[in-house]
Design goal:
Blueprint lengths: L9 E5 L9 E5 L2 E9 L2 E6 L13 E3 L2 E3 L6 E3 L16 E2 L1 E4 L2 E4 L9
Antiparallel strand pairs: 1-10, 2-3, 3-4, 4-8, 5-6, 6-7, 9-10
This protein binds FE2/S2 (inorganic) cluster.
């Protein structure tokens, strides 16, 4: 799904503030968002709360394009939000990310995997 940049995209940080493979928590319009940089100019944004329980995914471990919840070990795709293993069975929201120069922009208004 392609989303145009519009006024709902808000600057979160500069890309240089995100370390490769190190999740970071961002608060965006009341949403807790887990930001993960997986490449020089590749950043993902997913809902920070594990779909299994009220646990912060940004405290988990990144492995490629997945993040592992530290409490029970469910892994979530950073691309689709889908859990790739139990005990979680429901996806987490994935938010579109755009780069404007070195600025990282996220829209929490347009999750890419929810209707
Ligand atoms: S709280 Fe995340 S897998 Fe259980």
């Amino acid at each position: 799904m392609s989303v145009e940049i519009d006024e709902t995209f808000l600057r979160v940080c500069a890309i240089g503030e995100l370390s490769l493979g190190e999740p970071a928590l961002a608060e965006i319009e009341g949403h807790r968002v887990c930001m993960v940089r997986t490449g020089e100019r590749e950043v993902h944004a997913i809902d920070d709360t594990c779909s299994h329980a009220n646990v912060s995914l940004s405290e988990g471990e990144v492995d490629g394009c997945t993040i592992e919840c530290w409490l029970h070990g469910s892994r979530f795709s950073l691309l689709t939000g889908e859990p790739t293993g139990p005990p979680a069975t429901r996806p987490v929201a994935v938010y579109p990310v755009r780069l404007d120069g070195d600025d990282v922009l996220v829209s929490v208004a347009h999750p890419t995997n929810e209707s």
